[in-house]
Amino acid sequence: xxxxxxxxxxxxxxxxxxxxxxxxxxxxxxxxxxxxxxxxxxxxxxxxxxxxxxxxxxxxxxxxxxxxxxxxxxxxxxxxxxxxxxxxxxxx
Length: 92
Fold this sequence. Notes:
Elements: H1 2-16, H2 18-36, H3 42-71, H4 73-91
Helix pairs in contact: 2-3, 3-4
């Protein structure tokens, strides 16, 4: 039974850091594109976007947590799914 808990914790940790790995992989190309567009501090802009993630994520968790306390977990899950998936459907 302990291996299931450990495996679940490891899998959750891996999924938690997946977006960081994707951003790290894309950041080189993003920085190069920003430099091509004429931004002299392209690397600093990319690192600023990365740092902004660490500030916005807890704030969003607090706001969605308060919303979930008022209306319930299921509507909060639906709201976060719509917020997350909405921008993706615009590009399709």
